[in-house]
Write the structure tokens for this entry.
Amino acid sequence: MGIAQNWRLRSQRYGLVGEVCDDCGEKIFPPRDVCPYCTQPAQTPFQFSGRGEVFSHTTIYNPPTGYEEFVPYTVALVKLEEGPLVTAQLTDVDPEEVNIGQPVEMVTRKIREDGPEGLIMYGYKFRPRLQEV
Amino acid sequence: MRDVSIIGIGQTPVGEHWDRSLRHLAYDAVAAAMQDAGVQRADALYVGNMLSGEISGQSHLGPLIADFAGLRGIEAVKIEGACGSGAAAVRMGYLAVASGLQDIAICAGVEKMTDDVGNRLTGGLAQAADADYEVIHGISFVALNALLMRRYLYEYKVRHEDFAGFSINAHANAVGNPNAMFRRPITAEAFKKAAMVADPINLLDSSPMADGAAAVILCPTERAGEFTNNAVRIAASAMATDSLSIHDRYDPLWLQAAQDSAQRAYRQAGVGPDDIHLFELHDAFTIMAAMSLEASGFAERGKGWQLAVNGDIRPGGRLPVCTMGGLKARGHPVGATGVYQIVEAAQQLRGEAGDCQIPNARLAMAQNIGGSGSTIVTHILEGR
Ligand SMILES: [Zn+2]
């Protein structure tokens, strides 16, 4: 992926910014220009809390190019508190200890590296939610 | 709209064709289909393919394959719908002939996987998913299916080994298909012990990628008799789409595009699930087989796996599936797979399926799935 292609997504990758539909009130992530629930225009930004729970998960041992340093890593569908599902890696957790329903929270981590001289991309991952103090 | 029939079929064996390039494989299938139909010319060629640009560095397959098949000059174009490209190409040919604009259309599918050096294949296949919001997180195509399967096992309280029947049936059927890649049976024990690919999906849940090409020739049904007395009528052709990514689905465990395309197909053909004699479904992974059966109306939600457990899907069962080996054992040459399914369904309806023959098969359904359920094409074929 090129520089502009990643730069364009910075508020999603770093801030989990989606949209809220002014018509039906659904929260939308990833953002799009038309609400998938009521097909009205949806362009009002909405920042998600980053809290959610594991909806499903799997662990990858044979990674695509650019992800070798993370192996083995767990990818998950995370159900955000506000409703949407998001696809992301889990971090700071042993793959064996991941469960459906586990509470998780968003953190910012390195997503991939395009070789020694290429782009380094950062973005959201999710980790087990720390105990509220 | 005109009624459309298949008057010729052709296929190469699925496997590693080190000595045949993309264009040669496509030629082999197209030439076989043209010979089968007894046609020398066609009005148009639709080529289903996904990965030629990524793996062979070759886009623009329309003119390339047309020229190589001796059809230089005709209308020709590549059709891409990920793993659903093949049936999408048949759909385009169907539209062309049904509309009355073309009389003879060739619908081919070709995929050349073994030209891959390194792991462009994994990256190329992942392009079927959302680049910005799925693939960027290091997810592979099999991992996407693993997310579905894990949730399915959890929500419906099913065991992984309850899916074994899909792969066992596919392998048993492939033994009788000379064009299949894996012509050997497997056991429930082997399924249980197979190496893990992306938990809970193991090696025997997964179909093998391979080289292959298949083709069908379409013409108006009213003219089919000029070419053959063994025409197979396309009773229905339907395509539907869903969100590209799994996280955008209203219900990740439901293949809405399978339901939509199957329902449209049933309506067009004037039949229901109970009338279908065999089903070439898209068992890229066992979980897809179960979800396809449910969304297409052959099983209740969460119960598609039961047809594998109770033997309904075997030859002689209520609904034989993957009668020539399916993706699992015939092999999965991505953009060609949907055409293989239709060729195999036609072989069954023509009574030319050899050791795989399902007796008295008259109505066959074929369903080709692109991505994790984003493009789904359903055809119903009727024999004489
Ligand atoms: Zn809305």
